[in-house]
Hints:
The protein has 3 domains: 1-154 and 290-316, ABC transporter type 1, transmembrane domain (ABC transporter transmembrane region fold, Up-down Bundle), CATH 1.20.1560.10; 157-271; 336-433 and 502-599, P-loop containing nucleotide triphosphate hydrolases (Rossmann fold), CATH 3.40.50.300. Helices cover 65% and strands 10% of the residues. It has helices spanning 6-10, 16-48, 54-103, 106-112, 114-153, 158-205, 207-212, 216-268, 274-286, 289-315, 326-336, 339-347, 390-397, 420-423, 441-445, 454-463, 467-471, 490-503, 520-533, 569-575, 578-599, and strands spanning 350-360, 364-375, 379-384, 405-410, 413-414, 427-430, 508-512, 538-542, 554-559, 562-567.
Amino acid sequence: xxxxxxxxxxxxxxxxxxxxxxxxxxxxxxxxxxxxxxxxxxxxxxxxxxxxxxxxxxxxxxxxxxxxxxxxxxxxxxxxxxxxxxxxxxxxxxxxxxxxxxxxxxxxxxxxxxxxxxxxxxxxxxxxxxxxxxxxxxxxxxxxxxxxxxxxxxxxxxxxxxxxxxxxxxxxxxxxxxxxxxxxxxxxxxxxxxxxxxxxxxxxxxxxxxxxxxxxxxxxxxxxxxxxxxxxxxxxxxxxxxxxxxxxxxxxxxxxxxxxxxxxxxxxxxxxxxxxxxxxxxxxxxxxxxxxxxxxxxxxxxxxxxxxxxxxxxxxxxxxxxxxxxxxxxxxxxxxxxxxxxxxxxxxxxxxxxxxxxxxxxxxxxxxxxxxxxxxxxxxxxxxxxxxxxxxxxxxxxxxxxxxxxxxxxxxxxxxxxxxxxxxxxxxxxxxxxxxxxxxxxxxxxxxxxxxxxxxxxxxxxxxxxxxxxxxxxxxxxxxxxxxxxxxxxxxxxxxxxxxxxxxxxxxxxxxxxxxxxxxxxxxxxxxxxxxxxxxxxxxxxxxxxxxxxxxxxxxxxxxxxxxxxxxxxxxxxxxxxxxxxxxxxxxxxxxxxxxxxxx
Length: 600
């Protein structure tokens, strides 16, 4: 019941005042309730033993009406305060998450995953705001209300007031104990649920095989056993929940019964009059209204805390980037490398990745002391088996990620001496799958250059062989491309990505498997465009088809994150090393594919 989450408390800055306002309004409702109970008990006591004058009776009626209005107004204001607190919480939480996501670069955003980001901002925030609008105010109220009622009741019947106060503070501790027991049972519940589900799905998928070998009955028996385990775990949680509610309600109603018995005993001994006895009865139940409110919102608060786990992972991500002065960079390199190396790095016309290493989550080494260069005005290809670090190197060149060790230099200047935004004005990438946004063709192209003229846009469309397609569109550049480019083919999508790269006028272009998901005709057209770009741009090409990069000025061969070979196509074939093996393996696969097509 006492659910204190550090992350949610830390993120409550903008709504803390509303949390206290809601708690105070709940106290105002309680004050009205106590005033009403005192008035009504005095009135009913007067019916039993008349002693009130006409003026006192009118005063009691006015007091009861005032108390009722106070309760009504306080309840209405509580609803309004909860609404405003919820709205403020939604805005502040979503802003905090959005701001953090915007600070993250592409590599870390991909690590989060689109579905996690959406669920955190959407459903996650909806669950978290309940913690502020209902749970925390109820928690504060449940701490204040019993104390207030104790001081209002102690002069009437101290034993009753003390008993109810003790029970009020014992209930949260008791519920915490049961919640910890239920949490342990839930682990077994989810384990058995996942085991049953996976076993059941596997049985359905393999039903034919099971019947072929007469194993369906045996499978049925195992499935029955797993279902029984799941049923037992489910029943254990239900029993624990039932025990929790039974004991909590037993203490509440038992406490009220004992309080009434004590009041009756005191009335019998003339320690209480009739009106005081009624007051004890009316306020006894109010002692536990705050605890009941807290118990009712605890489940929602647990859901909010569960949603916080994913948000906490996002907010905890490190967004700092390596930034160093020229002097700091030089000093660090001088400590490790010679003056000749420093001169080479600062005077090289192109991009250098020098002695770089990178590990994913400090577990898997992807790049290991890699040193490669990409001369300006040349075409460099990066090849290697799957998982050798090609795409990681491409992401590093775009500064989506930074190396754990080593340095990257762009035309003599360290990557760390310039912002990623400044660097990306000179280096652009055409990824394996180009992202298309909802909207027109023109809007999608202007992402690369918002102030591009129509003439510039048409020129790049001609270069990427989309001009004829454009002329066939009734609305031309204003044609809507559908949700996420749903109206485009794979080839058109990639060509639009290439057109963006050309429109940006970046002198360096990285192609990261840019033709792996297009048809053969589109692939040939894209490669023809790439060949034409060799005359005016510096190209870095990652391609699964080795036949397409044979004319590259330099081919870099990677294996397990290390440079194993480099040179021209002919030079590497003569060495008969890693590259030679890759070419031969691909030729065999292509020949096998041709044979299958001929049979068909």
